[in-house]
Amino acid sequence: MNQRGKTWQQNSAIRRKGSAALLSVMAFMLVFATACSSENNESSGSTAASSDSPSSSASASAPASEKPAEPPVELKAFFPGDKPTDFETVMDAVNKKLVADGIGATLNIQFIGWNDYGNTTTLKTSAGEEFDMFLDAPWLHISQMISSNAIIPLDDLVAKAPELQSSIPQPMWDSNKFGGKIYGIPLGISQGIIGGFLIRKDLREKYGLPPITNVDELETFLYKVKEKEKGIVPFATDGRYADGLVGLFNSKTNGDNQALTMGMDVFYNGDKNGNIYPIYERPGFEETLKKLNRFFKDGILEKNLAQQENSTALFNQGKVASIPYSGDGVEGLKFADALKVSGVQLEVAIMNENQTHYSDFKQWNFLCVPSASKHADKVIAVMNWLSIRENHDLLEYGIEGKHWTPIGDDQYKVVEGSQYSFPGYVLTWRPNLVRTPDNMIPDDLKWFKFTRDSNNFQLSPFAGFTPNTDAFKTEYAQISPIKDEVLKPLGAGVLNADKGLNELKDRFKKAGNDKILPELQKQFADFKAGK
After folding, report:
1. How crowded is residue 14: how many other Cβ atoms within 10 Å of its Cβ?
2. 405, 414, 418: which is closest to 440 by C-alpha?
3. In 264-401, which residue ranges form alpha helices assigned H by DSSP?
4. Could you report the per-residue pLDDT of 102-118, keeping only the tens digit for each?
């Protein structure tokens, strides 16, 4: 920790000690005054009891005894990432308001680098170290934390936190339990996934093309850019996301045939009837592989897509005509700088947007309380307090006027020069409280508002179903490398479609698909039957 962080913690400790000392003096004075009053009452006899006595009236209106207020407890939290700029200033304001509002707690938030966060939190919980909250997730180690009793269920405490309950839609509460219990407060701002493309509207209109509503129309746009705009790449994305293109460019995985997620990454999918199948059996899968291979040969995909790590920067420089888009309120913000390029206009193209949109309402970040914490009630009290707009805004956006200014009830503008940016996914994300920045791409704002409303999604038949991989963990471990070794090259178009599909099927078979698939189907049948 740098010297500035140490100084802030030392000053905080001094302030807490000073507050405790002041409370002790006040308590002593109160006890002394009460004792004197008692002695006077006893010596006055019946006169003290007279209703005409001024001193009697004052004594009657005061409580016989008053318990001195306890100093607030300090809640220690661990979160991943780097400490935000100007964090101490904001936390000082947050802690003062927590005390003033009578919550009985203050926050001591410590950030741990991403590379060390998982191991560090595992070691701290397994050693029984006393701290009060931390971020966990299905992509981290929440399942292991639950099975080892390293974190506690929070159902009873959440039931006493009305503001927290109302700030999170009920489907989100219902779908983010583990074994039927709340083991973490779900942190998210959207209720489902809307995927599509962010494209150069100015180029589409330049060549007289209609708004894009399906994959075929998108393909026409991409080939027109390739033909007419020599300095612009038709489509780009980072190589680490290349496997996602196998679904993104699939014109048949929409509506009634939509592939539904079921907590198993991209390897197995389901349909609305509850049937589970491996990824290569998706409708339109083989056709999409051939399309991507053709895109690569024709120069529609960036030639170095498999190794690309800076596609966002290229798009923002006006060098790319289209890029993957997700209406989650976060991803779209990365591309706002593209609007600074002269003549650039942007729009979102959602394929078959009038289809039925399914969601399992799953979130991927959770605020958890370790078993060693002695202040679980205070943690939930703080989470309830952060579910009130002015408190939420203070921590998430900073000090009003210094770091940000409000625009209406649900937008904000960053004050020029402010660099404060709190990672809301660790503590403050609430679908019903989030504000959007004033520079958000209009189409991005439109679709983010759509994804925030749980009424826009139909409950996936796989909602709440989390496969137990213990029965086939050896086989599943052999399937996991397929993503990097086969699916990503296929998505980038660099692998021949026929050869790649055969390799994919062969790898699944050798890994033990014949054991995994029946087990998954059995587990899902048991889940639907309530077993």
Report:
1. 10
2. 414
3. 285-298, 311-316, 376-385, 389-397
4. 999 999 999 999 999 99
User: Residue 135's Cα: distance from chain center in Å?
Assistant: 10
Range of lowest pLDDT (59-68, 70-79, 139-148): 59-68
Between 65 and 95, whose confidence is greater? 95
Residue 341 Cα distances to 315, 316, 338, 345, 414, angstroms = 10, 8, 6, 9, 21
Q: Following DSSP, what letter does each residue of 370-434 receive, concatenated?
A: BTT-S-HHHHHHHHHHTTSHHHHHHHHH-SBTTTEEEETTTEEEEPTT------GGGTT--TTT-
Q: Which amino acid does the sequence have at 256?
A: D
CA distances from 362 to 114, 256, 366, 368, 379 (A): 23, 21, 11, 16, 23
Q: Cα separation of 289 and 243, whole Å?
A: 11
Inter-residue contact 393 to 402 (CB < 8 Å): no
CA-to-CA distance for 505 and 491, rounded, in angstroms?
16
Nearest to residue 91, comparing CAs of 161, 9, 163? Answer: 9
Beta bridge partners, 359, equal: 459
**pTM for the whole thing?**
0.79
With CA atoms as reference, report the closest residue to 241 among 167, 310, 320: 310
Given the structure tokens 């019946």, which residue do they identify? 46
Residue 63 burial class via C-beta count within 10 angstroms: exposed 0-12, middle 13-18, buried 19 and up: exposed
139: exposed, middle or buried (Cβ count in 10 Å: 0-12, 13-18, 19+):
exposed
CA 210 from centre of chain: 35
